[in-house]
Amino acid sequence: MTETSATTAAPRSGGHDPQETVASRFSAEDLARFERGGFLVARDLVDPQTRREMIECTRAALTGEAGPAEYEADLNYPGAPDSRAAAGGNTIRRLKEAHARHPVFTRFVSAPPLADRLKQMLGPRVVMPLAHHNCVMTKQPRYSSETGWHQDIRYWSFERPELVSVWLALGPETPENGCLYVIPGTHKVHFSRDRFDGELFLRTDLAENEALIAQKVAVPLEPGDVLFFHCRTFHAAGRNLTGQTKYSVVFTFRPADNLPRAGTRSASMPELLLP
User: Inter-axis angle of helices 112-122 and 103-110, to 10 degrees?
Assistant: First the structure.
């Protein structure tokens, strides 16, 4: 099978007007691509200084007091250590509550290049739930795991399945170090419960799912690129087969009128209204 790379909202710097990558808005064509495919990449959206601050904050947590974190061994995904006591058992997969770790994350989500694009997608009042994503993904060598095909909305509880996640690459993301793959257009399709396993991942033993997965595309990113993807878009990721840790910042956003359902995990933490 030939894997296709994702299309992007703007070309990388070089040979084009620099304003194409620093503009605060998507074009009508960009938005139409997102509507069709359920994902879109904006190139060079975050400056090097902001990325350096995020990386420094992340590395300090990984080498010191990690705070709220998710460990590879706790998930039992393919490639993960068998337990916390096994070799690599202390490998952190995700630093949770990223927004509270450093002001740089607030600056990132509030800055016009991101906030204005989210308003185009979700409406004039955009809210960031802190109960979902709100993390730094740290895909580390040797003990990183594979993440199966899933839709984020299957784990969340809101009045409507209308949320968009943003995935910021702090370094290069490639198939070799575990970049995301997506299946275009799946945000528009209804899938029956029997196509999922007990953990709500897409079953790979069904012919209809195999045909769907064959449509996957890789989403390679360069430092500062941001992937926007719909909460119903199927996505997955492989292991990090390189010798360098991959860092990614991930947040989720909703329209202000798409409320979390009371008593669910989605309503369990405060939320941030973007300026």
Answer: 50
* 23-52 per-position pLDDT tens digit: 679 999 999 999 999 999 999 999 999 999
Strands 4-5 and 217-218: parallel
Q: Which contiguous run of DSSP H or E holds residue 56?
A: helix 48-63
Listed in sequence order, the residues at least 6 apart from 87 whose beta carbon sits closer than 8 Å to its beta carbon are 81, 143
Is position 84 within any domain? yes
Q: Domain span at residue 219?
A: 4-9+37-239+259-273
Question: Residue 199 maps to which CATH number?
Answer: 2.60.120.620
Q: Which residue has tokens 């941001």?
A: 226
**What is the per-residue pLDDT across 178-224, written as a single tens digit (0 to 9) for each?**
999 999 999 999 999 999 999 999 999 999 999 999 999 999 999 99
Output the six-digit token pair for 31. Answer: 């938005």
CA distance 152 to 156: 7
Q: How many domains does the chain have?
A: 1
3-state secondary structure of 265: helix
Cα 191 to chain centroid distance, Å, stands at: 21
Which two three-digit tokens encode residue 79?
Answer: 């490639």
